[in-house]
């Protein structure tokens, strides 16, 4: 591929000259002069330990990238679905809130 063909967020197939044994699939996170930082999203089981050691990121030269097609027989990373729920306030927070509300309601005393 050429630099002009690479866009942020694009999914590409790539190979590593040194770190990984098999081809992998990744998402372009940052573009450099002759290479791009890829977040590895799909890879062969043989490379699982190496990918983990690389924190699922790798800089790859443009000449080692191709536009992506569907991954075949590769381990795809699952995305974590994190849900956030509002927690009930603790007793200390409840008492503090009540105290603040009472102070706001009470009229300020005038001094002479």
Structural write-up:
The protein has 112 residues and is of the alpha+beta class. Helix content is 19%, strand content 28%. It contains two helices and six strands. The protein has helices at residues 48-53, 91-105, and strands at residues 11-14, 24-31, 35-43, 57-61, 65-67, 75-76. Strands 1, 2, 3, 4, 5 and 6 form a six-stranded antiparallel β-sheet that branches. The radius of gyration is 26 Å and the shape is elongated. The model has no long low-confidence stretch (mean pLDDT 79).
Beta-sheet strand percentage? Answer: 25-35%
**What fraction, in percent, of the residue positions are helical?**
10-25%
Number of strands: 6
The number of helical runs is 2
Radius of gyration based on Cα positions: 26 Å
The H/E string reads EEEHEEEH
Low-confidence stretches: none
Mean of residue pLDDT values: 79
């Amino acid at each position: 591929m050429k630099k002009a063909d690479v866009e942020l967020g694009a999914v590409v197939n790539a190979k590593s000259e040194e770190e990984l044994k098999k081809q992998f699939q990744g998402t372009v996170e940052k573009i450099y002069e002759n290479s791009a930082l890829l977040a590895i999203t799909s890879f062969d089981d043989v490379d699982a330990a190496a990918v983990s050691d690389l924190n699922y990121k790798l800089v790859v030269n443009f000449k080692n990238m191709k536009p992506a097609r569907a991954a075949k027989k590769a381990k795809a990373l699952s995305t974590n679905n994190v849900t956030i729920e509002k927690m009930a306030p603790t007793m200390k927070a409840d008492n503090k809130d009540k105290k603040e509300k009472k102070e706001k309601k009470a009229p300020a005393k005038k001094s002479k």
